[in-house]
């Protein structure tokens, strides 16, 4: 399962947001009886309106959304790359994630101390990004040294050197490694380094409930930074989300309406993270369940079938495939077939976003 790590300075609302994520996840944990949840790991459903529509058509007993994992990575402070705070342990955790959600404080509250004394999201982002870049810098330097030693006679090490040098030049200027363009081979070679500043990033601008509908000047500043980095910003209110967890569905609707929003930002954050990870969803539907499955963009039908079960991949014959919109327009699989909209796809078919699939396979 793909993992997103939540980072940010202390007291910006990370734990509040993470707890709201986990509380939501617990609500549908019944669907996933075998998943163990660690204290700082939350497995979260990805919201998808299509599931309910298909479930209605198929009269499905249940709906099973697809999931991603969020990890609360506490302990990033100024000096973390030098071993301050949780230091290296923190950095080891974050190297494992596929994407980073950077929570930034965009709310004012005199009762909640800001580690640097005032609310200033641009400065906060710089502090965190500098720590990440410094951590990458020492990683790349070490690796480069090793590669140079091994280079004589070892092809891989030789090929790695120019890639590492390119990255080093950026990091030395305090720029993120994500801006360096590498070819496919170089990309593979540097992958094991788990460079923090090469991971895709989303900024979660944490605002007070009053600013949820409109944003505020701090959010605009975050958007300015994100624009230069090709990153995305999601406005979220950790405070609102933590209150939503406590109240009934009916109260939720009233509360959100009074704030002038449809949701507290958490759902948008989950969706944006999913998209950031380059993931696609295909769907299966029947009387038993309607379910979303996660694949990487470009995956072919047998591999996509393998996400359900390895037997499906091994014994793959064909996949009856219909686009979600076509199925919804025709209402039933039979009607879609009559119109010629259900395709029988073979092993070279690249699965598309929103394909509704039924796999034929040998056991
Ligand atoms: P962390 O250190 O980043 O994990 O921050 P926490 O989630 O522990 O939050 C620090 C404090 O800020 C807690 O007392 C939260 O209740 C409070 N807090 C979090 N989000 C908001 C918010 O949007 N508005 C306000 N006023 N307080 C918040």
From TrEMBL:
ATP binds at residues 11-16. GO terms for molecular function: ATP binding; ATP hydrolysis activity; GTP binding; metal ion binding; ribosomal large subunit binding. It holds the Pfam family MMR_HSR1. The keyword Metal-binding applies. The keyword Transmembrane does not apply. NCBIfam families: redox-regulated ATPase YchF. This is Ribosome-binding ATPase YchF. It comes from Rippkaea orientalis (strain PCC 8801 / RF-1). The gene is ychF.
């Amino acid at each position: 399962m793909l993992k997103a790590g939540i980072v940010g300075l202390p007291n910006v609302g990370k734990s509040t947001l993470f707890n709201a994520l986990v509380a939501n996840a617990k609500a549908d944990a019944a669907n996933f009886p075998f998943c163990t949840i660690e204290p700082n790991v939350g497995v979260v459903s990805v919201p998808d309106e299509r599931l309910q529509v298909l479930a209605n058509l198929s009269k499905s007993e249940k709906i099973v959304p697809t999931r991603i994992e969020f990890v609360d990575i506490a302990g990033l402070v100024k000096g973390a790359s030098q071993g301050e705070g949780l230091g290296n342990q923190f950095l080891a955790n974050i190297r494992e994630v596929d994407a980073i959600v950077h929570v930034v404080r965009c709310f004012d509250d005199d009762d909640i101390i800001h580690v640097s004394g005032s609310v200033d999201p641009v400065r906060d982002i710089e502090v965190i990004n500098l720590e990440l870049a410094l951590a990458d810098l020492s990683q790349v330097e070490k690796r480069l040294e090793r590669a140079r030693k091994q280079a004589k006679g070892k092809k891989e090490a030789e090929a790695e050197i120019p890639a590492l040098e390119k990255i080093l030049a950026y990091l030395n200027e305090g720029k993120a490694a994500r801006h360096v363009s590498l070819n496919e081979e170089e990309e593979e070679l540097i992958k094991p380094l788990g460079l923090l500043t090469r991971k895709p990033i989303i900024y979660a601008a944490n605002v007070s409930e009053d600013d949820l509908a409109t944003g505020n000047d701090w959010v605009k500043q975050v958007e300015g930074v994100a624009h230069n980095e090709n990153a995305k910003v999601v406005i979220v209110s950790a405070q609102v989300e933590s209150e939503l967890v406590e109240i009934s569905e009916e109260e939720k609707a009233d509360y959100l309406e009074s704030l002038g929003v449809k949701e507290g930002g958490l759902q948008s954050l989950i969706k944006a993270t999913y998209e950031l990870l380059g993931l696609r969803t295909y769907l299966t539907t029947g009387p038993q369940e309607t379910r979303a499955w996660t694949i990487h963009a470009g995956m072919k039908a047998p591999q996509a079938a393998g996400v359900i079960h390895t037997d499906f991949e091994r014994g793959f014959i064909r996949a009856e495939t219909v686009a979600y919109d076509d199925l919804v327009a025709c209402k039933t699989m039979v009607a879609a077939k009559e119109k010629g909209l259900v395709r029988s796809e073979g092993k070279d078919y690249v699965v598309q976003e929103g394909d509704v699939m039924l796999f034929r396979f040998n056991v």
